Every structure is written in C-alpha cells, then in structure tokens.
Amino acid sequence: MIKGLKKSEKTKQKLLNAVISLIQEGDKVISVASITKKAKTAYGSFYRYFDNLDQIHAIAIETLVLKTAAEEEKNLLKEKSNLFKVYYVWYLSIDIFKEDNVANWLMDHPASINDTWALTQPMTSGWVKAAIENKEVPNLSNKNLKHFEMAQQYIWWMYQQALRELIKGRKSLDVYLEIMQSVNFLDLPRKTHQSFLQKVIDRVN
Q1: Is the pLDDT of residue 2 over 60?
Q2: What is the pLDDT of residue 111?
Q3: What is the pLDDT of residues 122-142, one digit of tens each?
Q4: pLDDT category, 1, cuts 50, 70, 90?
Q5: How many whole angstroms separate alpha carbon 192 and alpha carbon 205?
Q6: Taking CA 96 as the corner, what is the angle to CA 174 and CA 61, rounded to the nearest 5 degrees?
Q7: Residues 6 or more apart from 113 whose CB is under 8 A from it?
Q8: What is the predicted pLDDT for the residue at 112?
Q9: What is the distance between the alpha carbons of residues 13 and 7, in angstroms, rounded to a whole number?
Q10: How many CB atoms lie within 10 A of CB 126?
Q11: Among 51, 149, 161, 172, which residue carries the largest CB count within 10 Å?
C-alpha cells in the first residue's frame, strides 16, 4: 500500500496505518505519542499531516469503509443481481466492525462513521439505478430509488444501536436481519424483500 508513494505520502500513510492498527488492537487511549511510536516516526511528524486526533480518526474510518467497499464492489462484479449487491453490502457494513475494539471506538465517534457511510451512497444508488434499468423485479421504479436514499438516513441513525448489539456478542447476521426486518429500505413487496434477505443468509452461511 505504501510502495511507490513519495516520502511525505509514505509518512502520512504510516501514521494512518498506525491508528487503524491501534484501533483494531483495542488500545484504550490512542494518543499522538502512541500513533507515532507505532508508525516509527518522529512525534512532530503527526502535526505535519493532521490537525488533531479527531481528524485522523475520521480519516481512518473512511479508509476502512471505502477500502472494504472497493474490494466488495470488485468481488461482486460477477453477481448479476444489482439488488442483491445492495442487500449484501449493507450486511458487510455491519460485519466490518464486529470486533469489540472497533465497535467500542465507533461508539465514541458516531459522526465519523455516519459521514463515511454517506460516501458509499453513489455506489449503492448506482446499483439500484442499474436494477431499475434492467427491470430486475416487477414494478421497480425511481420511486424505489427515492425511498432507498431516504431510508438510508434512518439506517445510519440506527447504526449506533447495531454497534451496541455487536458489543453484546450478537452475530452480525442476526443484527443485520433485525434491522432489515424493521426497515424495508427499497420498499419492495414483502415477499421480494424476504427473498433477498434469504439470499444474504445463504451467502453468509
């Protein structure tokens, strides 16, 4: 990931990788000192690239989410159903942060995760648009797209509750299904909605 970058870019990436590692390792207190020590860089290097800890925390979450989104978009290229892609990626959005250390950290930084999910909307909305063009299911229209884009806002608000459930030790799939059962985010007929949830269950299991 660092190979081929300029020296200044390498240092910034090392600092970013360090904070991601510290989050995943479960460090209770992440400080400039612990980040630069982990990155094996000088203490002062931190402030050449980041204004404060909140900024690097937000970028760290953005990096994790967008990296996963890009990887899964590539993995799903052979998947014919664009609607399934939408359902499955929302499962991944919960599963990616299932580890207690990361979930606990996110609970303390709710704004950064909500802002990051907004960056993935063009990808998921693009899949819905493609499904409409392909007439993937009967009567699918721009009304479904508008409903989806509105419903996502509510799902983002529910994300903190999803994290709480993960911290309790519940499985990612169970938490996902609970949310999806309460929010039909594409406003599809119930039978169709359930069929896509079953496909996610089958893929995960």
Answers
A1: no
A2: 67
A3: 889 999 999 999 999 999 999
A4: very low
A5: 20
A6: 135
A7: 61, 65, 106, 159
A8: 67
A9: 10
A10: 14
A11: 172
Domain residue limits, the chain: 1-50, 64-204
Q: Which residue has the tokens 């499904």?
A: 131
Q: For residue 160, how many C-alpha atoms fall within 13 Å in the half-sphere facing its CB?
A: 10
Q: To 5 degrees, how large is the angle CA 24–CA 27–CA 30?
A: 105
Q: What's the confidence (pLDDT) of residue 200?
A: 96
Residue 32 sits at the vertex; the CA angle it makes with 36 and 159, to the nearest 5 degrees, is 110
Range 1-50 has CATH code 3.30.870: no
- Token readout for 131 is 């499904």
Q: What is the DSSP string of 80-143?
A: --HHHHHHHHHHHHHHTT-SHHHHHHHHT-HHHHHHHHHHTHHHHHHHHHHHHHTT-STT--HH
Residue with tokens 């608000």: 157
Q: Find the largest Cα–Cα distance for the chain.
A: 60
Residues contacting residue 79 through CB under 8 Å, at least 6 positions apart? 85
Residue type at 110? P
How many other CB atoms sit within 10 Å of the CB of residue 87?
23
State the pLDDT at residue 4: 46
How high is the mean pLDDT of the chain? 86
